[in-house]
TrEMBL record, chains A, B:
UniProt EC number: 2.3.3.10
Top EC class of this enzyme: transferase
List of catalytic residues: 91, 123, 257
PANTHER family, alphabetized: 3-HYDROXY-3-METHYLGLUTARYL COENZYME A SYNTHASE, HYDROXYMETHYLGLUTARYL-COA SYNTHASE
Keyword Cytoplasm (UniProt): no
Protein name from the UniProt record: Hydroxymethylglutaryl-CoA synthase
Amino acid sequence: MVFSNGDVPDDFGVSGVSCYFPASFVRQEALEKAHGHKEPGKYTIGLGQTEMAFCSDKEDSVSLALTVTQMLLDEYEIDPSSVGFLGVASETLVDKSKSIKSALMPLFGDNTDISGVDVKHACYGGTQALFDGLGWLHRTYPIQHRLAIVVCTDIAVYADGPARCTGGAGAVALLLSPGAPLVFDNGLESTHGHHGYDFFKPVGAHNCEYPIVAGKESISAYLSALSTCYKLYKRKSKAYAGRDKLSLVDFDAACFHSPFTKLVRKAVAVMVAEDAREGGRVRGEEKMEGIVAGLRAQEEPSDLSVISPESLKASEQTWQEITSPNLEMNRRLGNMYTPSLYVQLVGYLSRLEEEKREEGRERRILMYSYGSGSMASVYSFTLNEGMTERLRRMIDVSRSIVGRLDEREERTPEEYGETMAQREKFYTQRVPSTPSSLSSSSLYPLFPGTFHLSSIDDQYRRQYARVDTRRV
Amino acid sequence: MVFSNGDVPDDFGVSGVSCYFPASFVRQEALEKAHGHKEPGKYTIGLGQTEMAFCSDKEDSVSLALTVTQMLLDEYEIDPSSVGFLGVASETLVDKSKSIKSALMPLFGDNTDISGVDVKHACYGGTQALFDGLGWLHRTYPIQHRLAIVVCTDIAVYADGPARCTGGAGAVALLLSPGAPLVFDNGLESTHGHHGYDFFKPVGAHNCEYPIVAGKESISAYLSALSTCYKLYKRKSKAYAGRDKLSLVDFDAACFHSPFTKLVRKAVAVMVAEDAREGGRVRGEEKMEGIVAGLRAQEEPSDLSVISPESLKASEQTWQEITSPNLEMNRRLGNMYTPSLYVQLVGYLSRLEEEKREEGRERRILMYSYGSGSMASVYSFTLNEGMTERLRRMIDVSRSIVGRLDEREERTPEEYGETMAQREKFYTQRVPSTPSSLSSSSLYPLFPGTFHLSSIDDQYRRQYARVDTRRV
């Protein structure tokens, strides 16, 4: 039975975004040297990364989620009693049973009627939580008129070795509602699920924070799932929205899960080659007709991770215009797992008014989410420019977030290495235990208002505290 | 933007259910003796449990999920290409990143466009996956006409000690669609989320399969969340469905998360007392007017876990008629965590035609889901008796499932203890490793068609195999 008080709105989507990242970072140029790479550029050019955020042992996925959720509530002046759904995505688990979501309940006071728990599938979880939040709005909004929040929280750390430089940390919170500035193009989302072992974190014998990674396989799985999802997205766009020969030219931004930005560069090349093969337009093709014509005539390569010079060339303008500028936070924070795709919304929004709007043209944002193991989706938002006030708020908040990148403190590779060693030790430390980085001499500052882990008691219960919200 | 090919149906719900449980069990009477309780009845009367299912080390939450999903596909002749959502709930994690859902993808062949990953919050996860699946149907069914599947899979094991007898194991799969025999009463679901540590499974230093349990607190949290949710459910029933003074008299069945059935007995007493206080009717009140009148006059006790003799008496007929008969699988399998609530739908459906239908009266089923940490919801289904053929299939499948309880093999408490020791050892065993219970002399049989773990390779990748589907 459905008890409806009204129609289902047709403009559900994202109407608020916030982002928290830790106050410490290490420079990739310094890491390259410290890791013994004589020629500079291994991480900066090879991976396309400039800095990497990291957390000491006083931050965990719960504290990050507490901080970003409180930020969202404050920045958008959300009445906690108006929230009816709260979904949390993470692959940085502190518990195999209890949800991070339950630890966020104190932020909502007397309102305990909040649906949603934790969702888990590698870096893809945030996308699933978004889809679930939208489904919840479709199912309940006409009855209850309440809002949804989705939180992505992760700390990416790797064992000492070649993958260590691809770490990062951060959290994103999204507010979902009708009348959203970023309207979800419902029904076009195209998914590819597959059973694989390219990156995972087995419990038991492998008792540490670090994943098991098959790097090459993961890159290949990321790109081939992208190709599958993008083709399906095009088919659905044609079937459900009557959009034929859709290509990246039809988008104002293309955002990607970004383990490192050089992989995203490859992803854009794969998509542009796909556009060309399908007879779609390519940005800047008038200046390189021969190259695009060549791509049009080529068959799809069997190994998508081998990027041809032609597809790199043909996709350069696309990359420069709709993807690269949104990646600043990814370059300076590193891989954040579940938030990695969503910080690009922050990047896009922070720059929005600097660009010119073409009259009568819809501004659309393409999103590619990937999680090892694997799950992947291509979906899209349409910018709802009528939502002036809400959009303005999102732009202001996004600018302030990007500005905070410069307020972080740099640490040396040695200090970073020590912090990782502290985290390793703390992970399996006998309880009761206290994070070593809590000591007053700690090198690891926290931004005002940050929640942090204060102790784990003898019953393994985690206690959290919050630093002063005022700047001192 | 919403691209709709039709209206949203108003009869989404459960149109298929299947259940897998392991082929071995231990008798609670034997366990009582073996655990040194001189007086019989500690587990059988004290907890209300008769048998307990258990898995050897060749079964894990993934293999259980593979088995039950294949069973559902077969029993309801579901075309794998018709499925668009697959959500998996578990708190028996084998990985902190990769989802169990991704390991089920091979069962769906070429259909890889399947949304949904894993959801996690103790025993509550299945309910969230159900809500998410329903939201997905509301959001996408008018466009795509595809079906949803929800899978609950868990193995409940406890360290040697007083909680060990409250283990169990099993998996449930639900098919969700419009035109469902069990229509979800959309919008009435009432939730209570709370940050607590009554039962949890910390990662790191506590590196084992067993939870940390605060038994008393958990019972108290279970009952107090029930009271909160039930009150809210009544308020929503009045506000959205015009049902005033709703009580358990209005339901054909009341199903509960069941750690052990004696706790469910208490839950029914708490609800009946609540019904009485609110002026609602009580089953059989004509035979005990004084008692019910006494309850009506009482204030709500501050500690709900102290059950008064009056509320026990007043709730006895309710318990006997709408709850106890559905608990057979819970009594004989033990706590199954996420599937524990949903096997009662099997119990209810297996008995459905033996009861008489009252003319013109809707048959409704109340559900109480609880997960430590904590999340709880009260919600309901309405039986759609017009769906004769689908309902018939659900009844037939349910009877066959209940019948399979008698096909299991009994093991002694000593054999059970050895199996737990094997699981403990296997959990942290160095890879590559092979389950010891795979040896040909193993005491632990598997039903035909059961998937099982065959090995963990040197890269921690789990391999699965399936036993012959024919009975030999």
